[in-house]
Every structure is written in C-alpha cells, then in structure tokens.
Amino acid sequence: MLFHVILSRQEMAESVHVPALAISSSYALDPPRHTVLVRITHWINTLSFLALVTSGAAILLAHPRLYWGETGAFGSPALIELPLPLNLDQSGWGRSLHFLAAWVCVVNGTVYVLSGLMSRHFTSNMLPAAAEVRCSPILHTVSNALHWRQPHDEETMTYNTVQRLTYLSVVFVLFPLMIVTGLGMSPAVAAVLPATVEIFGGHQSSRTVHFFVTGLLVVFLMVHVSMVCLAGFRSRMRAMITGRGAATRENT
Ligand code: HEM
C-alpha cells in the first residue's frame, strides 16, 4: 500500500514536470531547474565568450578594415572601414588569449550540445511545439519585454517561445558559424579543411562573417542579461548557479 502511494506521488510529480525546468512543492521530487552540466557549461561558455570578445577586439585594432573575397590589405579597397583607432601593440596577448579561449569554447560547447542531444534537453525544453510558433504570442512577449513588464510566475516555469527560438539559434546557428569562420581563418585548419573557407568565398569573407556573427552574439548577450534582470536577477542567477530557487518573483 505504502509502495503504491509512493509510486503514485512520483507518477504525479513526473506528469506535471517539464524535465529540468519544473518546480514542485516537494524538494525530494523536485528536479533542479538547470542540470549541473548545463550550469557548468553555461558559465564556462560565458567566460570563454567574454575572453574571445576582448581578445578579438585587441586583434581587430591591428587592422580595423573588413574585406570580401580571398585577399585584403591596407591600400586596397575595403568593404567597411571600422571607425576604430589603429593599434598594433595589443595583438600579441590578444592572439594567445583568443586561440586559448576558442578551444575552451569549442570543447565546452561540444560537451553541452552532445549531452543536450543525448538527454533530449533540446527537444524537451527548447524546441517549441509547432502550435506555439505564432506571431501574436511572440509579439506579445517582445512587447512585454520592450515595455519592461515582468513575466508572471507561471510564465517563467518554462522557457517562452521567444527564448526557445533564440537559444536554439544561438546554440545551433550563431556559435557554430562563429567557430567555423574562426577555424577558416587559421591557415593550418584551412589547409586540411579548405571547405571551411571556400563556403564563405575566401579568407577575408570568413573574417567579415566572423565579425558580424560575433556582433549578433554580443547583442544577444546584452538582451539576454537584460531579460534575466527583468525576470528577477537574484532568483535567475541562483537557479543558474545552484540549480534551485527560480520560483520566487522579485522586483529587481
Ligand atoms: C555569451 C554568453 C552567453 C550565452 C551564449 C548564453 C546562453 C544561454 C543559453 C543557451 C541558456 C539556456 C541554457 C539551457 O537551458 O540549456 C541560458 C540560460 C541562462 N543564462 Fe545565459 N548565456 C550567456 C551569458 C549569460 C550571462 C552573462 C548571464 C548572467 C549575467 C546569463 C544568465 C542566464 C540565466 C539566469 C539563464 C537561465 C534563464 C532561465 O532559466 O529563464 N547568461 N543562457
């Protein structure tokens, strides 16, 4: 009888839980909002991305012009002349840090994606149902964010459609594109895998795409952190660090 009751409670808990993003009244039956692997890879990714952006800016200052095609140099016409000062003194440490952070980002991202695919994290928690991908609820979410209106508690139990589509684009489009165009700029990698350069039409095109994709990721990061603040900075951060405690509404 007791066994039957325990099973029933467990079945009940499972039936109302979205894995890894659900909140229940019983701590014992309450899975964390984010698994330990998601949390560790998320923060390693954040650190490596910040290192990549800082060191990338230092490298860019040594040649703040963008080209299209295979070649480009001072004296030849540029696609875009960035309004940045020329500075040749920062690219030494910039390159060392950039290559180190890039490999951390690649290895960490691979662990996150493979584990997410194996645990069905992406299909269960990120892929929106076809019926949810409709203009009016998406516009409603965007409008709420633009008007800085806090989401209701029940709306924050799972990722909303905008979050889901954005996270999927970041994980499966923008980051892979940033990595492939980055690899394409390495003469060693391009010699072994010329396709990494050829698909973009040359080294300089890869560099230009790399620059704009990174720009989009920086915009994502700014909006992402703003949305974390809107939803409640302390509770969201607690959940992303400890795995628990995102249910409480805040006025931060
Ligand atoms: C380039 C840097 C970043 C990227 C690419 C990124 C990406 C993501 C992704 C993909 C998720 C969903 C994780 C999953 O469920 O698998 C997520 C969640 C989250 N991120 Fe980030 N993130 C970045 C930086 C940050 C920073 C700097 C903060 C805080 C200051 C932050 C706070 C959070 C929080 C709190 C969540 C959970 C949101 C929720 O549960 O509603 N992230 N992030």
Care to describe what's here?
- With 252 residues, the protein is an all-alpha fold.
- The protein folds into two domains: 1-30; 35-242, Up-down Bundle (Fumarate Reductase Cytochrome B subunit), CATH 1.20.950.
- 63% of the residues lie in helices and 2% in strands.
- The chain has a two-stranded antiparallel ribbon.
- Helix 2 runs antiparallel to helix 3 and helix 6 (161-184) crosses helix 9 (203-242).
- Protoporphyrin IX containing FE binds next to helix 2, helix 6 and helix 9.
Q: Tell me about the biggest sheet?
A: 2 strands, antiparallel
The termini sit apart by: 47 Å
Shape: elongated
Order of helices and strands: HHEEHHHHHHH
Strand order of the largest sheet: 1-2
Low-confidence sequence ranges: 1-20, 22-28, 248-252
Structural class call reads mainly alpha
Strand content: under 5%
Number of strands: 2
Helix content: 55-70%
CATH superfamily of the largest domain: Transmembrane di-heme cytochromes, Chain C
What is the number of helices? Answer: 9
For this structure, the CATH topology of the largest domain is Fumarate Reductase Cytochrome B subunit
Mean pLDDT: 87
Summed up, the domain count is: 2
Highest-level CATH class of the largest domain: Mainly Alpha
Q: Are any ligands bound, and if so which?
A: protoporphyrin IX containing FE
